[in-house]
Amino acid sequence: MTQVNHPRVFDLFETIAIVQGEPQNLAHHQRRYAHSLASFYPKQCYQVFDLASVLQKFLADNPPNHSLMRCRIDYNASDMAMHLVGYQRRGNLTFQPVICDDIDYTLKFTNRDQLNTLLQQRGACDEVIIIKHGFVTDCTIGNLVLKKNNHWYTPSTPLLNGTQRAKLLAEHRISACPILLRDLDRYEEIRLINALNPLV
Length: 200
Hints:
Layout (H helix, E strand, L loop, with lengths): L11 E8 L2 E2 L2 H15 L10 H11 L6 E8 L4 E7 L8 E5 L13 H7 L7 E6 L2 E2 L6 E6 L2 E5 L7 H8 L4 E3 L11 E5 L7
Parallel strand pairs: 5-6, 9-10
Antiparallel strand pairs: 1-2, 1-3, 3-4, 6-7, 8-9, 8-11
C-alpha cells in the first residue's frame, strides 16, 4: 500500500472508528468494502484486502493517541491509503430538509461535491435532511434515525447503506420504514448515526 497526496487517485473510502485502539464493526466494513469494489470495478480485476490484518499492521506502526480516533481508508481496485486522526463525537444536531431528486451516493465515493453543495443549504441548522422523490434519505455525513413512541426508526430509502445502520438493524435496535417529508413532524427526535456516532 502506498501513501499518496492526490485526492482523485482513490474513488472510494471507508471510515472506521478506533476505540481504545480497537477497530469497531469490522465485519460490516469488510462486507461493504468488498461489495463496493465489485460494484465500482465490474469489468476489471480488483484486490480485496483483509481490513482486520491491514488495520492491525497500520495501528502497530501508528499507535492511536486518543481514546476515539477516525481511521479513513481511501482505496481503489488495487491499493489503499490510511489516515488516522482524533475524533469528537457529534452532539444533538439541528436539521434542514433539502430536496434533491437526482443525487446518487449508493457507494462511499471520495467525490462528495454534490453532498457539499446540499450542505450549503442548511441555513442556520447544523445539517440537512436530504429528500429524494419525497422520501427522507440521509444527511451529508451519515444515516438518520428518528424516534417515535420510544422506538427508533431509520428511513428504508437511504442513499448509502451505512455500517452503523446495518449493525443497529441486525441488533433489532432500530426498524427500517418509509418516511416521507410530510411525516417528519410525527417524530420526536432525529439523530445522526455513522461509524463514529453510534446510537447511545
